Amino acid sequence: MMQNPAPALAPGSGGATTISLAPGRFAAAGRSITCPHCENDVFVPGIMPLEPAGIRLVGVNPRGRQSVLLMCADCTRLLWFGQMPQRVGDAMIRHGQRGVEDVGHRKSVGGLWDQMGKLQFEFLLEQGLKPHHYLLDIACGSLRAGVHFIPYLEPGHYLGLEKEQKLIDAGLQHELPEALRQCKRPQLVVSDSFEFEKFGQKADYALAQSLFSHLPPSLIDDCLTKLRPHMAEGGAFYATFFESAVSRDVPERVHDHQRCEYTQAQMLDFGRRNGWEAQYIGNWNHPRGQVMVRYSPVPV
Ligand SMILES: C[S@@+](CC[C@H](N)C(=O)[O-])C[C@H]1O[C@@H](n2cnc3c(N)ncnc32)[C@H](O)[C@@H]1O
Asked: In this model, does residue 30 exceed pLDDT 80?
């Protein structure tokens, strides 16, 4: 993660003004700023003299006029402004319900609404998902993928589990047309402790998109242990994660927006020690670089 740099001085009309160069969320002319390339909304600010000579990414030229740039913290695209945009939030979205309230049900699950929804849908179709299968969408959020799976699957065959009631409510209210909901009857459970037994139905396919990328090892173990008895024979569970080349310390504290990275070996081991065969799939075109692992229940 980026460290917060020390504040820098930006000259105003009457002298120097202190601004923070810490990463954050910004607005200009009353509109929040998002990256036109990747839709991320966290930027690292910098100051730059307008003179073409002596361009510096971060610095002060007390004699000259300045422009401000924001570098996208995700894809590094640079955006230019004539004045410092207003800082409207910290870099990290707040955990849980407060984060949903702060940034809304689309952004709090990562933005890229259409792209990430379709990507998950097309991926599982390639893996053989058919309308008669039961799909368990673990940490389904505000139905970013659900809006594609629910119309495709037979009525009652979409099982969504999510810990934030507000996300489920927003998904049903704003993303899924009422007629579709009535006709397809998705089964939705709000739970933060992987209570898969509440569905009363085994899953042929399960998906955890961008869940293990934010969980400590103890909760990944918990999810895999509890899921194992609720998978149909021959079923498959696909999970995404941020891959690291070396094993890293992951804090046991839980925060929806912390980035947790694991090695390939760690991800395979999570499965094997909880009753699963594990297979590394790797790249599946995730725009932020999460890779995929497949877990198959070991027959008992
Ligand atoms: C990055 S979002 C992804 C949501 C969804 N899979 C998608 O792709 O749109 C991660 C989701 O995991 C949920 N989550 C985190 N821990 C959870 C848990 N223990 N049980 C259920 N949901 C959880 C969060 O509330 C959030 O909705």
From this structure: yes
Residue partners of 125: CB distance under 8 A and separation at least 6 = none
In this structure, the residues whose C-beta lies within 6 A of any atom of ligand 1 are: 109-110, 116, 139-141, 144-145, 161-164, 167, 192, 209-211, 256
How is domain 113-297 classified at the architecture level of CATH?
A: 3-Layer(aba) Sandwich (3.40)
Rounded distance from Cα 210 to ligand 1 centre (Å): 7
300/61: higher pLDDT: 300
Atom of ligand 1 nearest to the CA of 164: 25
Q: Which two tokens stand for residue 77?
A: 């695209």
Ligand 1 centroid to residue 142 C-alpha, Å: 9
Q: Where are the domains of the chain?
A: 8-91, 113-297
Q: Which DSSP helix (H) or strand (E) runs through 78?
A: strand 78-81
Residue given tokens 């390639």 in the structure block: 126
Highest mean pLDDT range out of 7-21, 73-87, 262-276? 262-276
pTM, entire model? 0.80
Q: Work out the burial of residue 177: count CB atoms within 10 Å of its CB; fewer than 13 is exposed, 13-18 middle, 19 or more buried.
A: exposed
Among protein residues, the one with the nearest Cα to ligand 1's atom 20 is 192
